[in-house]
Design brief:
- The chain is mainly alpha-helical.
- Helix 2 runs antiparallel to helix 3.
- It is rod-shaped, with a radius of gyration of 19 Å.
- It starts with 10 loop residues before the first helix and ends with a helix.
Length: 79
């Protein structure tokens, strides 16, 4: 009898599952934010952001929240 129970996942399985779920949630949240702000962007810019968010889920979503979420008019008003 093996000491490893196949019905209980190993810690790394749980960690990867949590990581994957969080990455999917971040991507969906970024896409939702993009859709809500799409009227402030040109259609080409919105499409490029959508491709970036989907192609690189973690980095693309982080870039959207860090840089892309602010519209060009908001950036020019800051200084």
């Amino acid at each position: 009898m093996s000491p490893h129970n196949p019905l209980l996942p190993d810690a790394y399985d749980v960690a990867w599952t949590v990581f994957t779920v969080l990455l999917i949630a971040l991507t969906v949240t970024a896409l939702t934010s993009l859709i809500r702000r799409a009227h402030r962007l040109s259609s080409m810019r919105a499409m490029v952001w959508a491709v970036v968010i989907i192609a690189a889920p973690g980095l693309g979503a982080a870039a959207w929240f860090g840089v892309g979420r602010r519209s060009p008019t908001e950036r020019s008003e800051e200084g």
